Amino acid sequence: MxxxxxxxxxELLAPAGxxxxxxxxxxxxxxxxxxxxxxxxxxxxAHNFSxxxxxxxxxxxxxxxxxLYLTVNTLMKExxxxxxxxxxxxxYYENGLDGVIVQDxxxxxxxxxxxxxxxxxxxxxxxxxxxRGAVAAKRMGMxxxxxxxxxxxxxxxxxKKETGLEVEVFVHGALCYCYSGQCLLSxxxxxxxxxxxxxxxxxxxxxxxxxxxxxxxNPSKYTKYLLSPKDLCSLSMLPxxxxxxxxxxKIEGRMKNVEYVAGVTAIYRKYLDKISENWExxxxxxxxxxxxxxxxxxxxxxxxxxxxxxxxxxxxxxAAVSPKNTGRKVGKVLxxxxxxxxxxxxxxLHPKDILVIPVSKDGQxxxxxxxxxxxxxxxxxxxxxxxxxxxxxIKPGMPVYRRRNEELLTHIEKNILNLKELTxxxxxxxxxxxxxxxxxxxxxxxxxxxxxxxxxxxxHGDIHIQExxxxxxHMNIYExxxxxxxxxxxxxxxxxxAPMPKKLLKQNDFVLKACKDKKIPYVDYLIYRKGYVxxxxxxxxxECLKNVIEQVx
Length: 553
Fold this sequence. Notes:
Thrombin, subunit H; eight-stranded parallel β-barrel; six-stranded antiparallel β-sheet; 23% strand; globular
């Protein structure tokens, strides 16, 4: 019998800096998404999610059968650890958070003690550099480690073999010059600690290398950015990573744009599936040049590096010419006139493409050209002349980069971002409330979380309310009728419930009360395909639902 042998696929893990990024990652084929909340994330300057947004994101991800991980990867102060972390995590935990990415080992212990069934992933900033570090992480209760990005394929393989832990590795995006982000330079420069989520990126500044005698060792104008690594691209390494086997492939970029998340995720998704379907031919695998070019034009500092997978280090890993996104080199300057630049391109240009010519010695100054919409065909290449805002510094032979490829972005928008897109309409929101019997001693009191610690929580098996870190006494009951009976039979029991009709409360001698120091929000959505027009009957039904909820509230 002939059959195609497939390889089990690792998880493809994409970043999300906003809800739009989350939707983009899901549409592009990510298996899981990682994001930051309002606290404790290593990207303090990203558009991090509020509590309400995070709960909505969890619901969205789970609706699409994707996992969602929360970054809790800063070093923590004592007050934060013991007074803030629990309350921060609780609403996400009870809404089914799939895991947390953690650096601080004190936070690891706190989470393990108070949220015992929550997965803990050891952040790359934990600096696990060998299998012994991974063993220690496993003993602390971690289920996954993200080893230091400086490790080789062989070292990653040994961690997997010796520990049996899930292993997650970065495969694409920005690299730090220091051991996996354990950088103190930002803090030394201006008090902005990278380990507290506020890195000022001093590695992207210019430096002069001198010997003890004061002799400059990097005199060239093209070697000023000595600490600025190129971005990582591991597309060609996918078969090797799958052979280990690595459990999760992580794309960096919580602060990059939506198109980047969608485009990069889609390309890695394409090749993971392709390699798995043709596993016996993996030795012949080569990514298509077109896809490498697309990755360069989505974000690239001159060119990519394969990092440390097969070598210890090397000068070719550094983006010595420019520390910022250059896009892809597509041509060169031929000549310059008063306000025009004549260039040669092997690639096809498109209307609205943005071209960049670096003109300063330090790589900071650049001339930006936009391909006009008018009088431009679909095959504009070869010798092309464009208007320039200034030409004084432009010289023949200078490279030309494309930072924005309009055709690529249109493809992403059409084929990824709008693919199977759903429309979400928020119908109503409410806070869960506490349901108790008329015989409960809390019936006539204001209820606080400390009061509930003395009682037994009755939990319904098919909802995402999890064990509160303040209360370890609970019973899982799947049948609503039995729950109601126990509430009446055992006075010191309670349930978290949605608002209930007064008639039902009276019928069962129940009391519905709010918790004074804990709100558990819940949102109901109407979800339908983009372009679907609600019928009159649909609209009437929705209106009836809203009226019922308002009456209950």
